[in-house]
Automatic annotation (TrEMBL), chain A:
Transmembrane segments: none annotated. The keyword DNA-binding does not apply. It is found in: Cell envelope. It comes from the Bacteria. Its main location: other. This is Cytochrome c-type biogenesis protein CcmH. The keyword Protein biosynthesis does not apply. Keywords: Cytochrome c-type biogenesis, Repeat, TPR repeat. It holds the Pfam family TPR_CcmH_CycH. Residues 143-259 form the Cytochrome c-type biogenesis protein H TPR domain. InterPro entries: C-type_cytochrome_biogenesis, Cyt_c_biogenesis_CcmI, TPR-like_helical_dom_sf, TPR_CcmH_CycH.
Automatic annotation (TrEMBL), chain B:
This is Cytochrome c-type biogenesis protein CcmE. Keywords: Cell membrane, Cytochrome c-type biogenesis, Heme, Iron, Membrane, Metal-binding, Signal-anchor, Transmembrane, Transmembrane helix. Residues 29-146 are extracellular. Heme binds at residues 122, 126. The gene is ccmE. Its main location: membrane. It comes from Aminobacter aminovorans. Belongs to the CcmE/CycJ family.
TrEMBL record, chain C:
It is a multi-pass membrane protein. InterPro entries: CcmF_C, Cyt_c_assembly, Cyt_c_biogenesis, Cyt_c_biogenesis_CcmF. The chain crosses the membrane at residues 6-28, 40-61, 95-112, 124-141, 174-194, 206-228, 248-265, 272-291, 311-330, 351-373, 393-412, 424-442, 448-469, 490-515, 618-638. This is Cytochrome c-type biogenesis protein CcmF. The keyword DNA-binding does not apply. The keyword Transmembrane applies. It is found in: Cell inner membrane. Residues 314-640 form the Cytochrome c-type biogenesis protein CcmF C-terminal domain.
């Protein structure tokens, strides 16, 4: 509302700037009188210069004569016909001009303005009630606070899991590291750090991540998250049966209501599928199709969903910007690690299309795909 | 000399001056303008030994070799051909593998390009305009759609 | 507030449309009321654009990322000063600044032009209105700084790091004050063409406006040059980069205009030529804007290239340059030619100045546009750089500089070169001495360096000789001479100071080009490098965290004779994470007029780093001389006779017979 009032006042002011001069009667001065004043001034100047001795008396005389000649010429020009003002045209033009200002400005503004969008200074956005803020704004507030007080470990501690949840894995790593540095190492922080590192690596439990999980286990040998991920690391190294064994141990020790139960059981199920032929040979009963379905329907656990979500994001990003060799490497590897061979194969195909199969990046991809057991024949 | 002759001689002087300036300008354009080439263009180009040119392209991945002190060698490529460039000095801030660069200098007797200046000027895509145009023409590089 | 700014801008556009048409029609019809509309409309338009600019600045300072322009060019962690200067550190904002300055000058004409003939004033304001309308339309259609983002992002993309510098805070506004200042001269010229007569007042107006614009442009170019010198880390002060040329061409043409305006004012000669120069100078300013803004050229200035903008600016360019030149061709023959003069005279010297300066402008223009033309016609990509300009621009400038001291000493109308040469004997002798001293006593001085030093001394002493002679020092009693010296017109001081500044700038250029020393080496902590007479020790790198960047600071100690550090120099490499961009912050130590310049290169693994050190003798004179030139222009502007506006009205004005001698 205030905006419309201001806009109206501005329009009124602008229209008046056009209207007022039109209503006032002004008398035109003869053009020649201006020139004359200029010449008179020049004469005075010559006199002053001569008096100061800047120009010789003869030069001064010459200059005066020249100016006088110009004044005479002026008188001759002065005889020009003054134009007669006609009445109708100017009135009409004046009226159109006065009307044009509000019409044009409001018309154009309606077409291209955004009157409903309020100003949003950052400080105001950051100080509004938390309930009214989006998650992004809350995070920005916390970040602003941490920039001012970078040694507030509690702040980092709170922010770290939030980062992880919204997929800013790299920031989560930094936040966890800061929290550990300032507040000291705890199981939760170490395990969180490991998870963040793994998330940043596209779901791969890297050696850094493993170090963090091991540190967590040193503090609390029963920590479910650390044990889960360390088992996952084994699986990613190809030691499926070891991994499955570790998960089974974990599953056995988990309380019934543990949030890790679902994820662990699903992991066990997947591991069993992948090791099935081996087990058949050993005479162990293969899991029935029902078992697999059951495992799949056992709600994909929080963590798996998160990793899958991130892989999907990466996939989407690569669809938009396919010239990212590292991204492709991560995507292909992630799909294969998640056990989605067909998707990995598909990603590999798209990567070839984007990067060229024979380019250096293409060859790197082929190497990787071969090591992951994907089909690399053309 | 009459007044008319004087005026004519002044005008003639001015015209002679302008003529000399024009001649000098075009001579200088012929001599001092340096042409821009991509590595693949060099096969068809006829270069006098020691002629200064600008060579543009992408810094080849993994080609940067730091030698003694501040000497550095790198490959400039347009994905068809690669030219080895030798340069002594400080590389620009934005010089990295895979980025577009323009180097200016001439070919040495051993076929290496001796650059005396390396530019990694940039627009928002970190790509010198000449390089971007040429790469686009070759279909090697597409602008990221955003 | 943001939307208020947007609305004010649109309203200003509507007003500028009125400003371009109504006074013009009024002048044509002889209707005083329509003509009178020009003044208030211009002033109101300026107020509205100022409001709009304030709104954008506010959005920047408050980090309002709902404004797309702010989001693209700012960041909440940026220091406040760069949030502020970021307003014009981008395409849209800088165009708004352009229009703001244009409307400001229009408002000045409206406010101080009450003594101008009504039709001239109306026409001038109308022409200003055309320019304003064209640029406002350009802003609203292709580069609206008030485009909004819904929902607003939480963080901005940061200002280009190399623009996060105090030099940038000053460079564009100064440059634009210069560029756009010439628009007033242009408007007066076109108004004169429309009316078909050149008023005596025109000569009075065009000179102060040219002077003011020239002072600002000089400052803008010098600032830009110094900024490039310390911010890009290459240690060069001028690169003959097309963007630099774009600002240099209006300066050259403006300098020519400045001198021909003197002839026009004093002697009523060269009227038509001055008119043409005024049109050309502003045309070159427009061309500069086009080259820089359209993205035809690659440089730090081409913030974003959008083809539609290029086409739009090209249209503006064609319309204004083509239109005004066509009008000139059509009308020039109707204008009364001015007085006559002997070739050897002050006028003659000024014409010579114009001949050289316009030819130099033409060579720079050709050198700048040639690559564009060749690419358009033949598809070849070429670049025209320093070697071309050294070969063409240099030979043109040297004779001009040689004759500079003669000009102010020649008499109007008919002069005597030999008499002037005699009076300059002292300066000539001293300059010759400077050549010999430089050549014989300074190590490594080339003939070129010696002659350059001599030419600088010639310019400086020639300017001082001019002042001394005009004050009559040596001819009259010292007290009398002092009185005359104090009483000299300001414009005489202005001329001498500006020519002196030119000499100083030349000396700086010669100093750097001839005696610069450079060392590039890999330095380990504790290592010492000797350059010129200085010993510099590298003390190591320390990482530092800035508000929106991280940097590795390299510390260097300047060692005294006893090996003890006498001073510390810091040079650093910065990294701006938001844009993922590194920059070099040169370490500069000014010693008297010279500088030690240190720039850091890549780091090797073992704590050693590539270091480039320059000893730049007399380098500060390059910009110091420009400041002196600006001072000269400013002093000249203070001359009572040059005050903006026609002289005060007098009661007796109606009786011309009274003053005719």
């Amino acid at each position: 509302m205030l905006f419309w009032i201001i806009a109206a006042v501005l329009t009124l002011g602008a229209s008046l700037a056009v209207l007022l001069p039109l209503t006032r009667q002004t008398r035109a001065r003869d053009d020649a009188s201006h020139d004359l004043e200029v010449y008179r001034d020049q004469l005075g100047e010559v006199d002053r210069d001569a008096a100061r001795g800047l120009i010789a008396a003869a030069d001064a005389e010459q200059a005066r004569a020249e100016i006088a000649r110009r004044i005479i010429r002026l008188d001759a020009e002065n005889a020009r016909e003054p134009k007669k003002a006609s009445q109708l045209g100017p009135r009409l033009v004046g009226m159109i001009a006065v009307l044009a200002v509000p019409l044009l400005s409001w018309g154009v503004y309606t077409a291209i303005g955004s009157p409903t969008v309020p100003s949003q200074p950052l400080s105001a956005r950051l100080s509004q009630k938390p309930a009214d803020s989006s998650v992004d704004e809350l995070i920005a507030r916390a970040e602003a606070h941490l920039v001012a007080n970078p040694s507030d470990g509690r702040g980092w501690d709170v922010l770290a899991p939030v980062y992880l949840r919204i997929g800013r894995a790299n920031d989560a790593v930094t936040a966890y590291r800061n929290a550990i540095r300032i507040l000291g190492s705890t199981t939760a922080r170490q395990a969180g750090l490991g998870e963040a590192i793994a998330a940043a690596a596209g779901g791969i439990v890297t050696s850094d991540a493993r170090l963090a999980f091991e540190a967590a286990l040193k503090l609390e040998p029963a920590d479910a998250k650390a044990r889960y991920f360390l088992a996952l690391a084994l699986a990613q190294e190809g030691k499926i049966s070891d991994a499955a064994a570790a998960w089974r141990l974990l599953a056995a020790s988990l309380p019934a209501d543990s949030p890790w139960r679902a994820a662990t059981e699903q992991a066990i199920a997947q591991a069993e599928v992948r090791t099935a032929p081996v087990k058949e040979a050993a005479g162990a009963p293969a899991p029935s199709q029902d078992d697999i379905d059951a495992a799949a329907s056992m709600s994909s656990g929080d963590r798996t969903a998160m990793i899958e979500g991130m892989v999907a994001t990466l996939d989407e990003k690569l669809r938009q910007n396919p010239r990212d060799p590292e991204g492709w490497v991560r995507l292909v590897r992630s799909y294969q690690v998640l056990g989605k061979t067909d998707l990995a194969q598909d990603a590999l195909g798209r990567a070839y299309a984007a990067l060229g199969r024979d380019s250096e990046d293409g060859r790197k991809l082929t190497e990787l795909a071969g090591s992951l057991g994907l089909d690399v024949t053309e | 000399m009459t007044r008319k002759q004087k005026r004519l001689s002044v005008i003639a002087g001015a015209l002679a001056f302008l003529g000399a300036a024009t001649a000098l300008t075009f001579y200088a354009l012929g001599q001092k303008a340096s042409y821009f080439y991509m590595p693949a263009d060099l096969q068809t180009a006829t270069l006098q030994p020691g002629q200064r040119i600008r060579l543009g392209g992408l810094v080849e991945n993994g080609s940067i070799l730091r030698g003694q002190g501040t000497q550095v060698e790198f490959g400039v490529t347009d994905s068809e051909k690669t030219v080895k460039v030798r340069y002594t000095g400080i590389l620009p801030d934005l010089f990295r593998e895979g980025q577009g660069v323009i180097t200016e200098g001439s070919f040495g007797p051993d076929g290496e390009f001796i650059a005396d200046s390396v530019l990694a000027k940039h627009d928002e895509n970190y790509m010198p305009k000449e390089v971007a145009d040429s790469l686009k023409a070759k279909g090697v590089w597409q602008e990221t759609t955003q | 507030m943001v939307e208020t700014g947007h609305f004010a801008l649109i309203l200003a556009f509507a007003l500028s449309l009125v400003q371009s048409l109504v006074p013009l029609y009024g002048a044509y019809k002889g209707d005083t009321r329509l003509m009178a509309v020009g003044g208030p409309v211009t002033v109101t338009g300026f107020a509205l654009i100022a409001l709009s600019f304030a709104a954008l600045t506010m959005a920047y300072v408050q980090s309002d990322f709902s404004v797309a322009n702010v989001w693209e060019n700012s960041h909440s962690l940026q220091p406040l000063i760069y949030k502020f200067t970021g307003t014009w550190g981008n395409h849209e904002g800088s165009m708004l600044l352009w229009v703001l300055i244009l409307s400001f000058f229009g408002a000045l004409v409206a406010a101080f032009g009450s003594n101008l003939p009504a039709t001239l004033r109306a026409n001038v304001l109308a022409v200003q209105g055309w320019i304003g309308t064209a640029f406002l339309l350009f802003i609203l259609i292709t580069s609206n700084p008030f485009a909004r983002l819904v929902p607003a992002p939480i963080e901005g993309k940061d200002l280009n790091p190399i623009l996060q510098d105090i030099g940038l805070a000053v460079h564009p506004p100064l440059l634009y004050l210069g560029y756009v200042g010439f628009s007033v001269c242009f408007s007066f010229a076109v108004a004169a063409l429309i009316e078909g007569r050149i008023d005596a007042a025109w000569a009075r107006w065009v000179r102060p406006w040219t002077l003011a614009a020239w002072v600002f442009l000089t400052g803008g170019i010098a600032m830009g040059s110094y900024w490039a010198y310390y911010e890009l880390g290459w240690g060069g002060f001028w690169f003959w980069d097309p963007v630099e040329n774009a600002s240099f061409m209006p300066w050259l043409a403006g300098t020519a205009l400045l001198h021909s305006a003197i002839v026009m004012e004093k002697r009523s000669a060269l009227k038509i030529w001055t008119l043409l120069l005024a049109i050309l100078t502003f045309s070159l300013s427009l061309l500069g804007t086009f080259l820089v803004r359209s993205g035809v050229l690659t440089s730090v200035h081409s913030f974003a290239s959008d083809p539609s903008r290029g086409v739009f600016i090209l249209c503006i360019l064609t319309l204004f340059i083509g239109g005004s030149l066509a009008l000139f061709a059509f009308r020039a023959s109707q204008l009364a030619a001015g007085g006559i003069f002997h070739p050897i005279s002050r006028e003659g010297a000024l014409v010579l100045n114009n001949l050289f300066l316009t030819t130099a402008t033409a060579t720079v223009l050709i050198g700048t546009l040639y690559p564009l033309v060749v690419e358009a016609l033949f598809g070849d990509k070429i670049s025209v750089g320093e070697p071309f300009f050294n070969l063409t621009f240099g030979p043109l400038m040297i004779p001009l500089l040689v004759v500079v001291p003669f000009g102010p000493l020649l008499a109007w109308k008919r002069g005597d070169v030999f008499a002037v040469a005699q009076r300059l004997m002292f300066a000539f002798g001293a300059a010759l001495l400077a050549v010999l001293v430089t050549y014989l006593f300074i190590d490594g001085a080339s003939v070129f360096a010696a002659l350059g030093a001599g030419l600088s001394a010639w310019l400086v002493l020639g300017a001082l000789t001019d002042l001394a002679l005009k004050a009559g020092i040596g001819n009259v009693a010292p007290r009398m001479a002092l009185r005359r010296f104090v009483g000299l017109p300001r414009s005489v001081f202005g001329t001498a100071i500006a020519h002196l500044g030119l000499g100083l700038t030349l000396l700086g250029i010669v100093g750097v080009l001839s005696f610069e020393k450079e060392a590039i080496l890999v330095m380990k902590p504790g290592q010492v490098v000797e350059i010129s007479d200085y010993r510099l020790r590298f003390d190591g790198l320390t990482p530092v965290r800035g508000p929106n960047f991280t940097e590795d600071q390299g510390h260097f100690s300047l060692l005294g004779i006893n090996g003890q550090p006498s001073d510390v120099i810091m040079s650093s490499k910065r990294f701006y994470p938001v844009r993922q961009m590194p920059t070099t912050e040169a370490g500069i130590k000014t010693m008297w007029l010279s500088q030690l310049y240190i720039s850091l290169g890549d780091e090797a693994g073992d704590g050693s780093v590539v270091v480039r050190v320059w000893w730049k003798p007399l380098v500060t004179l390059i910009w110091g001389g420009s400041l002196v030139m600006m001072l000269g222009g400013f002093v000249s502007l203070l001359d009572r006779r040059l005050r903006v506006g026609a002289p005060a009205r007098r009661k007796s004005a109606a009786k011309p017979a009274a003053v005719t001698p």
